[in-house]
Amino acid sequence: MKNEDYDKLVxxxxxxxxxxxxxxxxxxxxxxxxxxxEVLSEWFIKMFSVSVNDSYLYVSIVMVVVASVLTGLGxxxxxxxxxxxxxxxxxxxxxxxxxxxALDVREEGFIKGIGANIFKLAGSIILYGIVFxxxxxxxxxxxx
Amino acid sequence: xxxxxxxxxxNDKFSLLASSEKEPIVKKYTDKFVDSYYLExxxxxxxxxxxxxxxxxxxLNKNKLTQKDISLLVNSDLQNQILASSLSASKYSVPMxxxxxxxxxxxxGLIIASNFISNKSQNIVVTVSGxxxxxxxxxxxxxxxxxxxxxxxxxxxxxxxxxxxxxxKSNIKIESATIGNVITTDHKDANDMGxxxxxxxxxxxxxxxxxxxxxxxxxxxxxxxxxxxxGTEIMKKYYENISNKKLKNVVDAGSIFYKEDTIYAGASxxxxxxxxxxxxxxxxxxxxxxxxxxxxxxxxSVSCNLGEAMPGVAHVISLEVL
Lengths: 144, 322
Prior knowledge:
The complex is a heterodimer of chains A (about 140) and B (about 325).
Chain A: H1 3-13, H2 20-48, H3 52-73, H4 76-83, H5 85-88, H6 91-104, H7 110-117, H8 123-143
Helix pairs in contact in A: 2-3, 3-6, 6-7
Chain B: E1 2-4, E2 9-17, E3 32-33, H1 44-62, E4 70-76, H2 83-89, E5 96-98, H3 105-119, E6 123-130, H4 132-139, E7 154-156, E8 159-166, E9 172-178, E10 183-184, H5 194-211, E11 221-224, H6 228-243, E12 250-252, H7 253-256, E13 266-268, H8 272-281, E14 289-297, H9 301-305, E15 311-321
Parallel strand pairs in B: 2-3, 4-5, 4-6, 7-13, 11-12, 11-14
Antiparallel strand pairs in B: 1-9, 2-8, 2-9, 6-8, 9-15, 10-15, 14-15
């Protein structure tokens, strides 16, 4: 059987999954997380009278810590499979990728295990975040 | 080429199911059931080696054999450099052959053992194991990482099975075997292993039936390894395409492994097929001639990152229940 014919056979049997449902779940769960962040930020401003910018920083810290702790306790992957990309795209997903990678290798030592593997998934986000930050920083500097 | 064996029998087996996650149908029937991914070991890799130890020791005790009675241990698992197999073999003073054909390892082991036994009478133990978390870590994402799973994903079965093969007569006879070619199509999606293995399975079943001059209904059941719900469908269509005949009596071990039906394509892993074969199909006592086709996807995370197509392999062995 030719490769093209086989591809057609596979596509006949395995129907493309619909992304619409996941899209709506992510839209609402992500929105809910955003709302929660906003409420938390308002609370920080009122309770501790911090500036608006500082309160956002504290909100991210809270989200990262909560996501990491829940990952460590073993529920966060189940929460993510319910709420999909709504929780994966924000910093909660980033925290989950770091903690889960570190958890996998915790018995292999601090240097060769955790140190070498913790950025296995998040490394690309950090590297290309910095690279494109520099590039767009230059562009902004030249144009403005 | 198909090999015929005269006096090769499966004397006994010892099966271990090590996780009740998603409710495996064999849970009540295995020789031993523990619900632990760790078994008090410090890592999951070591725990998988311990699974093999439990089944090998269990098999020896069940048959009142000592290590001296075993001339060869053939074992396999899915870890890098088949670590679990080496760890468990190091606990016994028995010569060991470590093999790897991913999920097709069980039948590969039986074929190797059968050939040795045809030449010289001896007792050989064939052991395979699978560990859900080890496979997740090895081939997919970190265990606790919340990646969105696709419908074609499979869920690796956790456990181990050891079988005792010799030329002492028993009720399960190994009649013949056909070793499969590695078949690579354009398929590249590592989530979907069924589509990678289906052509290999169809080709080797076809070749076995031609070389033995049999029709597919000669067998009461054709038990495939872990093609999954979609892979089985593709395999049947592929077989129809290459041979113009229909395969009707196919049962896929991966598809029936879990009771919970939200488990995407089904189960996978080297332990999935022997668990279903010994603790489900053979316990029903209604099949006399069984064609076992174990299928394996021979990709690695490196080959996937390089963008290479996934190679698939399948081996078949024909069993007769006396």
